[in-house]
Sequence to fold (182 residues):
Amino acid sequence: MKTIQLSLQVADDITSIDHLEQYVDLLGQQIKRQLFTNMLTQLGQSESQSDTTPSTCPRCKKSETMAWGNRPRVLKTVFGQVHFRLLCQKCQQCQHTFSLSMPGLELNGSNTTSELRKITILCGSSWPFRQAANVLWQLTGVELSFSYIRWLCANEAEIVAAQANTEYQTSEWEARNDRSIG
Fold:
């Protein structure tokens, strides 16, 4: 368990409850992004210093790698965009450079977190996609295109339809077996 202390400077010109609410919301978003970035950096550093998980080249599968800088990454979260640096390795055998993946922190090729995707799907299924994009921007400060929202909703619809089809086929099979037994 780590202890993190924050010291904040608060504006003196807050004149209404609405202004206070907006100010606290923006401040909270900034704190969450900074905290997320700091903790992600600490996780990456502790993982790279760990000798229990040697990095293996994804191309040639050799474990002779060396640290090779880092690359900037932007992650879209429910509290805004988070900017951080991803540690890189270089294979001494084939010269391939790659990023270290931290177990449990993989995004499977996405730059949006699963929580943001859930909220996006809820908004996209509730409003027209352009309006959903505007609502998400107002709530999270993250800009998502309406076509991305449409794509996410279509993928979720396919998953739900496949699950419903499987459940229907299972219940039909059980019903037929019950009739043949009885």
Summary: The CA atoms of residues 17 and 23 lie 10 Å apart. The chain has two domains: 15-105, 112-175. The radius of gyration is 23 Å.
